[in-house]
Amino acid sequence: MAALSARLVRPLLGCTRPSAVASFSSAAPEDDVIYNAKHWEFRDAVRKVIDKEINPFVNQWEQEKQFPAHQVFKKLGDIGVFGVNKSTEYGGLGLDFSYSVAVAEEMGRIDCGGIPMAIAVQSDMATPALSTFGSDYLKRTFLEPTIAGDMVVCLGVSEPQAGSDVAGIQTTAKREGDDLIINGGKMWITNGAQADYMCLLANTSTNAKPHVNKSLICVPMKEPGVHVSRKIEKLGMHSSDTAQIFFENVRVPAKNIIGDEGMGFTYQMIQFQDERMIGTALALDPLDRIIRLTIEYTKERKVFGRPVLDNQVVHYRLAELQTEVEAVRALLYRAVFQKLQGRDVTLLASMAKLKVGRLAREATDACLQYWGGMGFTWECPVTRFHRDFRLLSIGAGADEVMLSIICKYMRTLPKQ
C-alpha cells in the first residue's frame, strides 16, 4: 500500500504528470468549444514554464509558506501571461478574454491552489480596471512593468469588517492639495507581503452614497506609512502569502486615481466578474485530476478482497462528480462567450462561482473519503486541494453573496 500511495502521490506533487491522470475533457483543438489552435499553442508555452519553473518547487514553497513572486512572475511575464488581454501599447498581447481563461485553465496544472491564485491576482483581478480606465501615466508607471513581470501587484478591497460587503469599507483617501492622504487598513491581501504596489479601494468622499464615494488608487507599497502588519496563517493556499496591511497618513498623488474619482466601486464590480470566471477556470483541471487520481487509487486499493472502485456506490459517485465538473465547464464557457459578445455576464459569472465553490468542497471531500487513511495524511494530493479549495466559497464574494446576486437577476428577468 505504501508503494502504491507513493506512486500516485508523486504525479501531483512532482514536476511531471502521466497521461493516466490527464484532464478528463482534454479535447483536440478542433473539437473545443471556445478554443482554437492558437489557444492551445499558448497553453503549451505556459505548461512548459509550469513544468520547469514552478511544479518542481511547489512542495518547498508550500513548506516555506511563500513562493518567490518576483522570480516566478518574471518568467511568466516573459511569455505574456500578465498581458493576455491588455493593450499592445503597454506590452500586452491584445487578445480577447477567452485567452485569459485558457491560461487560467492551464494554471490549474500547478500542484497547489495558492500560486495560481496569486498569478490570477496579477493578471485578472487587480489590473483590469487599471488597464481599461487608467490614464497613460498610470499605465506607463504601473501596468507596463506589471505586464512584464517586473512588478508584483496586490488588490486592496477587503477589510476586517468589510469582506463581501464592499460598500462598507472604511479606508479613506482625503485630498490635500494635489495629493491624497490615506488612512485605514486592508485584510486578507494576496501577494501583500511581496507586492510593489496595491490597487486600493478607498473612500474619497464623505458626502456621497457608498456606491459613488469610492475610488481605485495605485499605491506604492514602499511609501512611508504603509505597514505590512503580519502574514496571515491560513487553512490552505499556503504558498501564497496573505497579509494584513495598515495605512497611516500615506501620501500619494491624486493622479494615481484610476479613471474617474468616485467610480471605484463600479470599477471593482466589473473586475469581480473577471475574477469569478478566472477563479472557476483555475479549479477545473485540479478537479479533473483529483477524480482521476481517485479512480486510479481505488482501482488498486482493496477492501474485503476487492478493489474499492468495484463498489457501485463509489464508481457512481465519481461519475456524478465528473459530470458536475463538465457542467461547470459548460457554464463557464457560456459566460465567456457572452462576455466576448459584450453582454453582461454578472448572472452567469455568479452562478459559475457559486457552483465551482460548492463542487470543489463536495468533490475533494468525497474523494478524500475514498483514499481512506491515506486521505487524512498531509502528503495526499487530494488533501492539499481539500484545504486550498475551501477558499472558493469565501473569496471574491461568498456563496451567500452569489445567491443574492442571482436572486436579484431572477427578479428582473423578462417574461418569456
TrEMBL record:
One of its GO terms (molecular function) is acyl-CoA dehydrogenase activity. Residues 262-408 form the Acyl-CoA dehydrogenase/oxidase C-terminal domain. It holds the Pfam family Acyl-CoA_dh_1. One of its GO terms (biological process) is fatty acid beta-oxidation using acyl-CoA dehydrogenase. Residues 38-150 form the Acyl-CoA dehydrogenase/oxidase N-terminal domain. Keywords: FAD, Flavoprotein, Oxidoreductase. InterPro entries: Acyl-CoA_dehydrogenase, Acyl-CoA_DH_CS, Acyl-CoA_Oxase/DH_mid-dom, Acyl-CoA_Oxase/DH_mid-dom_sf, AcylCo_DH-like_C, AcylCo_DH/oxidase_C, AcylCoA_DH/ox_N, AcylCoA_DH/ox_N_sf. Its cofactor is FAD. Residues 154-250 form the Acyl-CoA oxidase/dehydrogenase middle domain. It comes from the Eukaryota. One of its GO terms (cellular component) is cytoplasm. Belongs to the acyl-CoA dehydrogenase family. This is Acyl-CoA dehydrogenase 6.
